[in-house]
Design brief:
- Helices cover 3% and strands 27% of the residues.
- By secondary structure, it is mostly beta strands.
- It has a 6-stranded antiparallel β-sheet. Strands 3-9-6-7 form a 4-stranded antiparallel β-sheet, with no helix packed on it. A two-stranded antiparallel sheet has the order 4-11.
């Protein structure tokens, strides 16, 4: 319902008979850091379209206080595609004008949004929809109290297709040989779960 779950079953969360591995990130935020991730939506960075995109966020250090990730509750259901922003909080990706909407700024109107976040221990994980707006921006502003290392895997359900959206993507994944609307049948995106028996 919220677009964010603390759960150990990403395959069940996707409700897909087939799950592909899309790509991964490792994020490191050192103790004493002043800025974290800006508000953003994973979906708009990627060369995919569909409704079964999932980020699996796994902490490699305990997460508390200013190290927590924040989410705008219900934002995955807004039906909006927000302009991707680079993590220096200044630049945006090169995309045609009018392709994306401007990101909301909860710090300017905090009463308009419900922001949720959690302390996490080793062994915990967050699962959230690609379309959920999240970052470190309102509850967790200030100096980071501890080093925060996180592994993030991006997973795709069977309804995800190669995107026709114009403009810069991250990761770029150029030269895939896929046409807009094609399934992500490519060696870079291996199937990690299938309900169909293998031959």
């Amino acid at each position: 319902v919220t677009g964010v779950q603390t759960c150990a079953l990403p395959i069940s969360f996707l409700e897909s008979d087939e799950v592909r591995f899309f790509h991964e990130h490792v994020f490191v935020r050192d103790k004493g850091a002043q800025e974290g991730a800006p508000w953003h939506q994973d979906y708009s960075y990627y060369c995919v379209d569909g409704n079964q995109g999932l980020s699996l966020w796994v902490p490699l250090d305990p997460i508390f206080g200013n190290a927590r990730l924040e989410f705008l509750l219900g934002s995955h259901r807004w039906g909006k595609l927000f302009k991707p922003q680079k993590f220096n909080r200044v630049d945006t990706y090169q995309v045609p004008e009018g392709t994306y909407e401007e990101l909301p700024c909860p710090s300017k109107n905090p009463d308009a949004y419900k922001i949720i976040s959690w302390d996490l221990n080793l062994g915990d994980a967050l699962l959230f929809d690609f379309k959920t707006v999240h970052g470190n921006g309102l509850l967790t502003r200030g100096t980071c109290q501890t080093r925060r290392r996180v592994f993030v895997a991006r997973l795709l359900g069977e309804d995800m297709r190669y995107s026709a959206r114009p403009g810069e993507k991250s990761p770029p994944f150029e030269g895939l040989g896929l046409k807009p609307g094609d399934p992500l049948n490519h060696s870079l995106f291996p199937v990690i779960h299938s309900a169909q028996p293998s031959l």
